[in-house]
Amino acid sequence: MKKLLLSASVILLATGAFAQTKMTGETARFGIKAGVNLSKFHAGGDNAASNAYNDNVKNNVGFNVTAFGDFGVGNNFFIQPGISLQNKGAKGESVSTITGNNTTITTTTTGKTNLMAIEVPINAVFRIPTGDAGAIQISAGPYIGFNISGKDKGEIRTTTVNNTTNASTTATVSNDRDLSFGSASDKNYGSTDFGANFGLAYRTNSGFLVGANYGLGLTDLTPKDSRANANKLTNRVLGFSVGYSF
Question: 20 to 30 A from 223, CA-CA: which of 100, 133, 174, 244?
């Protein structure tokens, strides 16, 4: 009896693995994935201010969590809608030094923006089987995002050095604030974000997956009433994730 049960289990596992080597128009499955985001803002416009901002802005390290479904529409081609919690933002640092009257003053200004958004992506996914091991998945599609919370953390550190005695003093001022969203000029960012996703992943036939995704924001994050010119501030997000689908 034990041998019979063991044999049946092996057959069922093998059948399940074989069934996952090809998706058809009747296939549907669900999954979850999570990982790390490297995000920053991008200033549009070909001018000195935008170029200087893009040269100095740095990646903010955040996270992503996504629940999704795969719905086959053809052999190895499927639509993948989902709902996702995305931690985005940016950070930067600037340093200025002034020397005069035998004194050197160095001012270091740092800032970090953490922005939380709920996104609804809808990706088209093409699956390239790699034998019995799994398949490469190439995806692209739009997303709409809703900014729900966030915080700016800023710090100004001023160091004054007496060049004669080499004595120094340092003063630090912190300025943290919660972010607000909307179209009015007193808001920090717009409340919605529309963009495009591009992804590459590998899914094993047992259901485990690992992948990377690039989110290209297309909506100006500047509140509508504060837009003074054609320049745009948009999201750029490179995400890495691992997950499981069944």
Answer: 174
